[in-house]
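Page 47, continued from p. 46.
Same chain as before, 245 aa.
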Amino acid sequence: MMKYTKYIYIACSIACFCLNPNLWGESKNRTQITLFAREYPIFVKGKTDFAHKQVKFINPNYPHIQKIKELLNPDITNGIFATYHGYLALSAPDGQISFPLWHPDPVVHLVITDRVTPIMMQSNTVHHWEIEEKTPASMYKLARTKDPNSDLFFWNVTEEKIPDNLIIPFDAILIFAKPDTIYVPTGIVLAQDSPNLHLPDIYVKPEINKLSNALYVLYLKHFFGSIRRSIKREKTPHRSVRLSF
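Result:
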């Protein structure tokens, strides 16, 4: 009975988290930054095996129910949390993670860790995020470049040293997971010539603990929220016009 009580508590907590509309920012008319989380291949006796091969899509008319099922779904590429520029995203059933693009350069940092610390600028504004001290983390730099000889675009993926001040770069996508559960291939990957940034794929290992990561993001949920616009009406100054005849 205790076992089922534990899972019921987790499911209820995640449900409350997913039903909060302020956690997912909305920006419809901007270019996008996108990457896909794929399942890490397991080689057994000379063949490649995947723990889950079938992707089931949920009715889009019920987005909150979809988010809950993604978190509790055994497919490891579903329900992975990531954040960028104040937006919080959850990987879709096919592993897609997308954000509205807010920085101009085709260079993105990818930070993978399961513990971060918000540094506040004001009482309700996060200035930046820092990796929690003594917490495992990995960071990669993804730079899109054009080959002058062939006019082809490509991504150059390199692993970077964690900064001594532990500050997460402004252009970074932060994935909430232990770094040894996410594999990021380094090297050259062909890229698309597009204003949208379609990043190279990352690979998720079976050891990832999505529920633990989700509960930690639940702890941080009050730092995320959609943009609230306010309109201030000002009086137009009176202008006198002099007419001459």
